[in-house]
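Lecture 7, part B: from sequences to assemblies.

Below are the input chains for today's worked example.
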Amino acid sequence: AQTVTQSQPEMSVQEAETVTLSCTYDTSENNYYLFWYKQPPSRQMILVIRQEAYKQQNATENRFSVNFQKAAKSFSLKISDSQLGDTAMYFCASITGTASKLTFGTGTRLQVTL
Amino acid sequence: GAGVSQSPSNKVTEKGKDVELRCDPISGHTALYWYRQSLGQGLEFLIYFQGNSAPDKSGLPSDRFSAERTGGSVSTLTIQRTQQEDSAVYLCASSFQGRSGTEAFFGQGTRLTVV
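Predicted structure of the full complex, as structure tokens:
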């Protein structure tokens, strides 16, 4: 079974600063994918970034990047130059080749302050 | 449509009544998920449909909950004899063929309040 753990229920960062959200996962599969989703107050879930487990290179999307440590089963999200619009719940998720079912962590609430 | 559509956006119902929540996935998406999200909490998996395969119902919390997907498209989540603990946001998501690594697109959810 897949499990995804986010150990930081809430975090705060000042505008323009950098923040890192933690995520660990557990799977016995070799073929799997990891995601970070953002859920702003509007409730709409939006994909932020995706990482394929077979790729060693860390994924990046503009100000968002991941630190994927496969051996440690760690998948943290780094947000650079934080903006007020980054305020949201962030969910880490995984899906494996056989399960084909997204499993989510419990989320981290990020507040970006002036 | 352009995205996953859920209706109604909000639903207030009396305890003991039945409710139906609807999800219109993105056209061509064969995988469909239902999740439940309590206020400020994470996502609780309910049910997963993939093409013509038998659905994965392992997340349904009780036999009061059921879901169907007609014609491989629209899905309805039914909650019978609603209880106050059923109050939550119900999120639907769809993805293309449910292939690993394929992004799941979410609707905006239905906020259910049982009074």
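Note for the exam: Chain A has no helices and twelve strands. Keep this in mind when comparing with the next example.
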